[in-house]
Amino acid sequence: MPRRRSIHVGEQHEMRPDLAACYGQERLPRYTSYPTAPHFSAAIGPDIYTEWLKAIPQKASASLYLHVPFCRAMCWYCGCHTSVARRDEPIAVYAAALRCEIDLVSRQTDRRLEVDHVHFGGGTPTIMAPETFADLIGSIRHSFFIRPSAEIAVEIDPRELTPQMIEALAYGGVNRASLGVQSFDPVVQRAINRVQSFDATAAANESLRRAGIAGINFDLIYGLPHQTVASCLDTVSRCVELRPERFSVFGYAHVPAFKKHQRRIDEASLPDSLERHQQSCAIANALQEAGYVQIGVDHFALPDDEIAVALREGRLRRNFQGYTSDAGNILLGFGASAIGHLPQGYVQNEVQTRAYSRSIAGGRLATVKGCALTDDDRLRADIIERIMCDFGVDLDLICARHGSAPDAMLRSSPRLRNLISDGIVELDGASLAVTDDSRFLVRSVAAAFDAHLDGSKQLHSRAV
Fold this sequence. Notes:
CATH architecture of the largest domain: Alpha-Beta Horseshoe
Strand order of the largest sheet: 10-11-9-8-7-6-5-2-14
CATH topology of the largest domain: pyruvate-formate lyase- activating enzyme
Number of strands: 21
Oligomer: single chain
CATH class of the largest domain: Alpha Beta
Shape: globular
Number of domains: 2
Radius of gyration: 21 Å
Largest sheet: 9 strands, mixed
Strand content: 15-25%
């Protein structure tokens, strides 16, 4: 087995700045899927997706992701598929399309699939009117069997959250809320067009808990314009006062060639790789000192949280929402740009909301691209997931499960040889482990097993 050791509460590791400077500029996937989305092709369309849906095994369960691509204002750092909606009518029309798609997809199976996880992402899902959200939840429960123990999660902009919406969330069975925070530094907030007070965040947190929504997640970002280690630590300190169950901590991905609104950010104000590395380390150490367990590379949780338990028990997974305890291999995506995952491969919907809605209104699934998995893809996906979750992998075990041998894979990766030479990876036979002071480069290690990486690097964020 690989030399695998979870990070415990209060434990810290010194991280090598020389490696951050050397590897940090490289652009790499976050590996929430493999192959990653840039490698999806138009060869996968509605007909193939329909075949895959009809082939879902009789006793299988599923998870659902619903994308709501609207916000009241554009945050300039945003890398999501979203647009600004000043009026409510386009949002209501889009929600109607979502309900139709839910019906279209569910009719391809011969039963109501059981569902363990539901996630509303965006954009800002809570931009919907409360009654619209209630209708959408009703459509989901009509078409699928949502297990009583299911996690129902919603991403929230605290600035837009109303008491009526909180009531609708609680009535709909939502039990996890992810609040966007990013930074409380007013200089940083103005530079990214997201001014959000601590008081507004605290009020949203308190109101959600009072409504019975007990699982709270805060999203933070480092590497933003004018951001410093001191401002990162101040944000963490204020967040910890509110004691959310989880934190997600991401590095800002500056890709103005693909996200035009990011051109409003002054590149000269962005921290370099070493500064980003220092910010990331400072946040991680501060959260661990506050009693949170580090989960993989970018999540933190209280020790009794479900993903912390999953980490300890060796069943942590990674999907499009990040680290998860979701053990399923079927994710049905709904909405513009939404990605789904079935045993046969990945599917993605039309990105533009109008094109998506036209397809659904015409009674057609909105699938425009995807990826059919090969045996080699499945093998590499398992290896990459274990590296991202456990900071190590037993290649003998994974390869045997796929009827393969690890020797050829180990020999075929010049990147892996360099990582070993630089002391980032230790190899004991076929057991691979990322060294403690190099864990922040886990994406670089995962990339050593990515057969599709070349040609897509410009689409990804920096490794550090």
